[in-house]
């Protein structure tokens, strides 16, 4: 497999965690979202992913984009350890939380939106994340065990950790979100979350490396 990725992309990080959890080795092709006006806009990368976004994964003779679509494929083809619970209600909760983050929070504060916000980008990002986290905190109080849904790592957790990283980057006050904070801390102790961290990637700038 070949993963087109950017060290600080939360969408890419989700996929890196899934690959690490499932023990799938892969090659990295870095796509710098800032350099050269954004390498994702090159004709070469547009041929890989017409949406001009990371991640993209070449695997088994196909190219997939969109992080959850990639993770679902990995789940279908390499089911252990599973990232979707067998229990139908828990599985629905995992998908709900993942969608909450992937659709309801992250796109509102991604690079393309922030560029349009100009000087207000920090305030915009903080407001979008805080609004989403208020709802997420309430949801997790009903679903969480050690992790987002019960005590098994799931697709929801793969979405949570990168989003908390974004929140910290944008200096969001995490005080009102004790459940999110607790789960994030527990997940960051796991090896798959450590090795996939933005501070440890091949394309991480020297000043940001762990």
Largest sheet: 4 strands, mixed
CATH class of the largest domain: Mainly Alpha
What is the helix content?
40-55%
> Could you say how many structural domains there are in total?
2
Number of contiguous helices: 9
Q: Looking at CATH, which topology of the largest domain would you report? A: Glutathione S-transferase Yfyf (Class Pi), Chain A, domain 2
Radius of gyration: 17 Å
What does this structure look like?
It catalyses: 4-maleylacetoacetate = 4-fumarylacetoacetate; RX + glutathione = an S-substituted glutathione + a halide anion + H(+). It is found in: Cytoplasm. Its cofactor is glutathione. It holds the Pfam family GST_C_3. With 210 residues, this protein is α+β, with helices and mostly antiparallel strands. It has 2 domains: 2-80, Glutaredoxin; 88-193, Glutathione S-transferase Yfyf (Class Pi), Chain A, domain 2 (Up-down Bundle). The chain has helices at residues 10-21, 43-48, 67-77, 88-104, 111-117, 121-143, 155-169, 178-187, 191-195; strands at 2-5, 27-30, 56-59, 62-65. Strand 1 (2-5), helix 1 and strand 2 (27-30) form a beta-alpha-beta unit. Helix 1 packs antiparallel against helix 7 and helix 4 runs antiparallel to helix 6 (121-143). It is globular, with a radius of gyration of 17 Å. The two termini are 26 Å apart. The model has no long low-confidence stretch (mean pLDDT 96).
How are the elements arranged and paired?
Layout lengths: L1 E4 L4 H12 L5 E4 L12 H6 L7 E4 L2 E4 L1 H11 L10 H17 L6 H7 L3 H23 L11 H15 L8 H10 L3 H5 L15
Parallel strand pairs: 1-2
Antiparallel strand pairs: 1-3, 3-4
